[in-house]
Prior knowledge:
The protein has 232 residues and is α/β, with parallel strands linked by helices.
Amino acid sequence: MSTTSAGTSSINRNIERVSPELVEAAARYQAAILADVAGRRGTVHGRVQPLSPKMKVAGPAVTVEVRPGDNLAIHAALAIAKPGDVIVVDGKGDLSCALLGEIMATQAKASGIAGIIIDGAVRDAHELANGDYPIFSAGLNPCGPTKSVAGLVNAPISIGGTAVNPGDLVVGDADGVVVIPRKDVARIVDLAQKKLDMESARIAAIHKGDVRPGWVEKELRAAGMLGEGEAL
Length: 232
């Protein structure tokens, strides 16, 4: 029995989103900084990359699950997503057919959707990569999708090995994509500033001639790569 016939919809229109204020605060940081302070968890598999390294996106996730090669549920997500949302698609890493192209990206941009992240293929790559609308994908394929198989919108998904719940914070940039659970965002943003301050201080120290981090020899001894009293 399908979920629809059982009295519930495959499309969840009402989700609790990370606040716009926290999205704005988190968007100031690299995905790498956020991933580090999140315990080096929450990063999407490196196959999912922006079509241009200049692209960056941050916002609450509108999640989509599709059968490989079918984009019907993505069209539903485009219809219900709110301005500032990021559509995040579990395309199963399949590259046999593109799930999105220039027309859908144009619709998303006109609707105020902040960007689209797809663990699958897209097409019209030249136009999209040279535009200013953030699109992240696992690859390219000129073959178009079918539009006939039911999927899920705003249900828990897994994309590139990372769990994503509707409303979670998603940040993507030239390094890739990181997902922060909605309840953790405020704490992660606070830690991110401390991490950024520390890294900025370390880079400044390197420029002044302090080229070797002080912790290296201690960790080498702990790993058995240096003996007691031995130095680099």
